[in-house]
Amino acid sequence: MKPGLRLLAFVVLLTVLGVAIFLATFDADRYRPLLVSKLEEALGHPVTLERLSLGWRNGIAVQLRNLSIREDASAAGEPLVRIESASALVRLGPLLRKEVQVSSIVLSRPQIRLARDAQGSLNVLGLVAVVSPAAGAARSTTVGGTPVSLNIGSFRVEDGALHWTDALTHPPTDLWLKRVDCVVRNIAPGTPMDIDLKAAFGAAEQNLHLSGRLTLPSRTHAGSLEQGTFAVEALVIQDILPAVRQGVPHLQGKLSMTVQGSAATLSPSRIRQAVTASGRLKLTEARVANLNVVRAVLEKI
Q1: Residue 195 to residue 135: CA distance in whole angstroms
Q2: pTM for this one?
Q3: Which secondary structure element, helix H or strand E, spans residue 288, and what is its range?
Q4: Across residues 278-292, what is the average pLDDT?
Q5: Distance CA 290, CA 69 (A)
Q6: Cystine design at 55: which of 61, 127, 225, 237 (Cβ 3.0–4.6 Å)?
Q7: Around Cβ 179, how many Cβ atoms within 10 Å?
Q8: Residue 258 burial (CB < 10 Å; 0-12/13-18/19+)?
Q9: Which among 173, 148, 185 has a CA at the least distance from the CA of 241?
Q10: Is pLDDT at 14 greater than 50 in this prediction?
């Protein structure tokens, strides 16, 4: 081996060894109170975090364990956000150039609560807190007066859940979207992001699929949706419709639907004219429960 190549190999080996020693001896968890404080300051809600750690998996892996965000310090019961594990894989090379390139962010078993109260006020902080890393990708900021750029390659959700409650309906609505698996790729401003989401809605197994290429609105682009597909199979109607009083006629059955479409713009004032879509709708095992046709006819007579 040539002397120059030997020197280069030696430098690379020392760098890798130094990073390994650093990760093995560095106690990232001591910065956990500072991180919690910054999150509470940014979100305006109480945050708890069980552990913060560093590791190595083809890059520097930052991991958060048992993160939760609550409505307020005294709030009991279901939090706005609960994440069993959140990890980000940061590339080492760009980090030395003060460029934070995150090859992937993975949220394991997140649970998000969305709600509308009896006054009509929406609380979507849980959803905003979870998707904000992807939405804020490829933006620049400054740390200590030094510009630092952030780029995220992919964003993944594994076995998540979304809980929606609506106190404005009568009776109140309570819906769950479970077994959520979602992947977002090619995250960059002005660039179509590939989105693929699967979930279980009103069923034990995943029966809902959403995919497409989404360009988020920006200062220079109104946004768009390409190759959008929404499909749901064997959705039990009575599980998603508002509950009815005992004995009141109501529709039962299973709904299957597939819709494909696109939107040339996501501008609120023009989106209705920009949307094109087509699809199919199928209702099986349909019946109207608690309906006596003879009695209904006689009552009308």
Answers
A1: 13
A2: 0.77
A3: strand 275-289
A4: 81
A5: 44
A6: 61
A7: 19
A8: middle
A9: 173
A10: no
Q: Is the pLDDT of residue 136 over 60?
A: no
Locate 272 and state its tokens: 């209705």
pLDDT band at 67 (very low <50, low <70, confident <90, very high): very high
Look at residue 177 in the predicted model and tell me its pLDDT. Answer: 93
User: In degrees rounded to 5, what are phi and psi of residue 40?
Assistant: -65, -40
pLDDT digits (tens, 9 = 90+) for 56-66: 777 778 889 99
89: buried, middle or exposed (CB in 10 Å: 19+, 13-18, 0-12)? buried
pLDDT at 49 over 70: yes
pLDDT at 10: 41
**Tokens 């199928």 appear where?**
282
Contact call for residues 109 and 158 (beta carbons, < 8 A):
yes
First to last CA, the chain: 102
Show the DSSP H helices in the chain as ranges: 3-25, 32-43, 92-96, 125-135, 237-240, 271-274, 293-300
Residue the block writes with tokens 């995943």 = 206
Q: What is the 3-state secondary structure (H, E, C) of 100-134?
A: EEEEEEEEEEEEEEEEECCCCCEECHHHHHHHHHH
CA angle 150, 17, 11 (to 5 degrees): 85
- Pull the structure tokens for residue 148: 């630092």
The residue written with tokens 């804020």 in the block is: 136
Chain segment 255-269, per-residue pLDDT in tens: 899 999 999 988 888
